[in-house]
Design goal:
alpha/beta
């Protein structure tokens, strides 16, 4: 029986270690997880590759917000991409949109060509979930040579978007990998796999750790709501294990 692959969204070196120990197949490595993920640093990437051996898809995203970038931001993204690929990233996740939400085909193809020149995997970000025409978007991505697209089916959570994801998998799955993400956990993994027909899932497997210096008497660096205002979020090893098991019950039992 083929194994369903699990990708963990990792915002730090520690997250990648938790993903490895939990049995994940690969990570999407980013920085600033609370902002939806930004480009990670090269030292973190190098240490993850050296210590875990995981397949690492590195995020290329220069700022928070959307994905319609100016020329300077695009230049920075390509410089970051070159740096990440030269330092052993197995692929890159990125998104380029025009003001109307359609795919920026020129920038996308240029990025794909760069990634493929390093024998890497080109992954289009969930930016695709705000595009006005999903079919047109997928056609542009496939024409550009994108290997995989991360999507929640244009809904806030992948389970809600499962009908769209299933349709994408049925019509395009033989030409581009469809990777569901957003709100996936051990409790719904089996249902999402069954409803969509995909063989891989993307999840954050979030947990929390306290940092006693987060909140002072009149100063707060908290970014999480109560009851976690004194915490920071992490990938939880046990949550990864539970997700891997839920996505591969037969394999787990056989092992």
């Amino acid at each position: 029986m083929n194994r369903n692959r699990i990708e963990v969204c990792a915002g730090s070196y520690a997250d990648c270690v938790a993903a490895k120990q939990g049995g994940a197949d690969r990570v999407e490595l980013n920085g600033a997880f609370a902002l939806g993920g930004l480009t990670p640093t090269v030292p973190v990437l190098k240490k993850v590759k050296a210590d875990t051996g995981l397949e690492v898809i590195a995020m290329v995203r220069p700022r928070a917000g959307g994905f319609c970038y100016n020329a300077d931001e695009v230049d920075i993204m390509f410089a970051e991409a070159e740096n990440l690929l030269a330092n052993s990233a197995d692929g890159l996740a990125f998104g380029f949109l025009k003001e109307d939400g359609s795919i920026d085909a020129q920038a996308t193809r240029k990025m794909v060509d760069l990634i493929h020149s390093h024998n890497g995997t080109a992954v289009f970000h969930r930016a695709v979930d705000v595009t006005p025409d999903m079919d047109a978007a997928l056609q542009v991505l496939m024409d550009a040579g994108v290997d995989r697209v991360l999507t929640s089916g244009q809904r806030s959570k992948a389970l809600q978007g499962a009908p769209v994801i299933a349709d994408l998998q049925r019509r395009y799955g033989d030409r581009i990998q469809i990777l569901p993400g957003s709100g996936i956990n051990a409790g719904n993994a089996d249902e999402i796999l069954r409803l969509t027909g995909v063989n891989q899932l993307h999840a954050s497997c979030r947990g929390y750790k306290p940092d006693p210096t987060t909140v002072g008497q009149d100063v707060s660096y908290a970014y999480l709501p109560a009851p976690h205002e004194g915490d920071y979020d992490v990938a939880d090893e046990e949550a990864v294990k539970a997700l891997v098991k839920a996505a591969n019950p037969a394999t787990e039992c056989a092992g």
